[in-house]
Write a structure and sequence with these properties.
7 helices, 37% helix, 6 strands, alpha/beta
Length: 180
C-alpha cells in the first residue's frame, strides 16, 4: 500500500503497530554527480501480509511514523540500518528503538555475506532481484516494478529473520558459512 498523503498514515501505522514484527528498509534517489545527495524518498515497512510504502519525499516523516520507529515494543528488522538511520535523521531527529540489524544477526548462523541478495540466496536458495535499486524514488508516481521491489526488500528482511530465528535454517549444512 502506497502512503503518499497524511490521510493514510494513521491506519497504516495502526496496522504496523499491531504486528509483533515488521520488516524495514528505505530508498533514496541515486546521486550520479560527486557531492550530490538526496533525502530518503521512501520508507518501507512490512508485516507478513502487507507492505506499506511511505513516500517521505511527499509527506515528510509524520509524527506517527516517527513514534513507530522509536517504539521499542515493536520489533523492526532491516539490513545495514545505521545508514538508514543516518539518512532519516537528515529529515528530522530520530531515536530508533526495537531494531534488529540482519547484518549482525546472520553472523551467529555462520553467514559470511552481508548483502540482502546474498543472505536471501543462502537461506532460501534463490536470489532476489535488485534491478530497480537505482531508479528514481522521487518520481511523481512509483511504477509497479518499483513498488514490488520496495515491498520485497522490507518483506525479505522480515522473512529472513523469521526463518533464522525459528531454527528452520541449519548453518551446519550451508556451504556459505564462515570457517573458523
Amino acid at each position: 500500500m502506497i502512503v503518499d498523503s497524511l490521510e493514510g498514515v494513521d491506519s497504516a501505522v495502526a496496522e504496523l503497530t499491531a504486528a509483533a514484527l515488521i520488516g524495514f528498509d528505505t530508498e533514496t534517489k541515486p546521486a550520479f554527480k560527486k557531492g550530490q545527495t538526496h533525502s530518503v524518498a521512501l520508507l518501507q515497512l512490512s508485516t507478513p501480509s502487507r507492505s506499506f510504502l511511505f513516500r517521505l519525499c511527499r509527506i515528510g516523516l509524520p509524527p506517527q511514523v516517527k513514534e513507530l520507529l522509536e517504539n521499542p515494543a515493536v520489533t523492526k528488522v532491516g539490513l545495514s540500518i545505521k545508514d538508514d538511520f543516518h539518512s532519516l535523521n537528515k529529515i528530522g531527529p530520530l531515536a530508533p528503538a526495537g531494531f534488529i540489524d540482519l547484518q549482525d544477526y546472520v553472523r551467529r548462523f555462520g553467514i559470511a555475506d552481508s548483502s540482502l541478495t546474498k543472505i536471501h540466496a543462502i537461506v532460501f536458495g534463490k536470489r532476489i532481484s535488485k534491478s530497480q535499486q537505482l531508479t528514481n524514488w522521487e518520481a511523481p508516481s512509483l511504477n509497479r516494478r518499483q513498488q514490488e521491489y520496495a515491498s520485497l526488500d522490507a518483506l525479505a528482511c522480515l522473512r529472513l529473520y523469521t526463518t533464522l530465528s525459528s531454527g528452520a535454517f541449519n548453518p551446519a549444512t550451508s556451504p556459505y558459512r564462515e570457517t573458523p
